[in-house]
Amino acid sequence: MTTIVSFMPTYQAAPVALYLLKWDVAGAAAKIRELADAGEDVSALVPAGEPVVAELAGLLAGRARVVETDGSLGFVYDNDTACACVLAGEKPLPSAPTGTTQGLRLLAGEELLGSPDMRWTWLEGADAPVEMPRRTTVTALVEASGVTDAKAVYVGYPNGALYVAGDGAAPVELGSDYVRVFGATSCMAHALEEILSLYRHESCGRCVFGYEGSYQAHVTLADVCSKRGKAADVALLRDLCPVMKTQSLCEQGRIMAATTMGFLDGFGSEIEQHFTKKVCPASECAAYMTYHILPSLCVGCGDCLDACEDEAILGKPRFVHVIDQRACTQCGACVSVCEEKAIVRAGADKPRTPPRPIPIRCR
């Protein structure tokens, strides 16, 4: 039996296994030696350049290999065939779902160092991982995050599951290093686009559905977030994901499809408003934000006229200035020069402004 113990971070912002290894190198070495003494051919994967590599290798004293590898990747190290490629000196490319290759076992560092009923996981924004029950609830994750206006909980790869915060009692199998709780000001289209960008970066290109599917999904959501989204593209994505879920060669494409379906099913209405109403309901997507000059505060000084390189502001002395939304590129240069604080950035709710410059009333 070949056993690979992976201390590679699935997420750069959530290096749980590496954190636990650094916390107790001696304890990790002792458990790896136990596996080797039981007759297993054991190797440990650690990010290249980490100072802990030399200490771990010294404690193992040749009874198990310590292999340094590229830390810029993440999801692939949750696949046993990809990790086996690293041991052979090759690129980490998955060739089959984890657990389906005889004589090969992948053991996550968190699994090696944690307890059976508990799991260390990293909540978005935290400085360190927290230990929680492997079987928990949506409410418990929300409370642990400290987010008071939660609307969704995302349990990262390899779970790839999205839960609506309102389903507080829903059971959660905590199998990921990373958890993010989205608040009321989080745009779910933007959140999904960020998640899909990671999958696209990790896609190996060995299967059409995994590689082309991740590309199509990411481009579709990027278009939605940049004001180029179309109903037909999202409808195509809804048709594509169920096929990806069954036809992708490894779990990465399958989980990406399941994650996308979860977002579309749980927050499809919010995502679709980006192209049906041309608004970002959470006011997070920059392309949907606009700048406006408030008539009640504008003194007609002309400072914003001089600052705008796109000539998108109309006005003259003692007239309320107006921003031409068709010409504005949302650079924000006008905001920084307005001493009256008359220029505001708006999302779905726009302030009332005149269509053209008007004389300033006596105040």
From TrEMBL:
Using the record's annotation, list all stretches that form the 4Fe-4S ferredoxin-type domain: 289-318, 319-348
Its transmembrane ranges are none
Record keywords = Iron, Iron-sulfur, Metal-binding
Q: Which GO terms describe its molecular function?
A: 4 iron, 4 sulfur cluster binding; metal ion binding
Query: RNA-binding as a keyword?
Result: no
This protein's record includes keyword Metal-binding: yes
Q: What is this protein called?
A: 4Fe-4S binding protein
Q: Which organism is it from?
A: Thermophilibacter immobilis
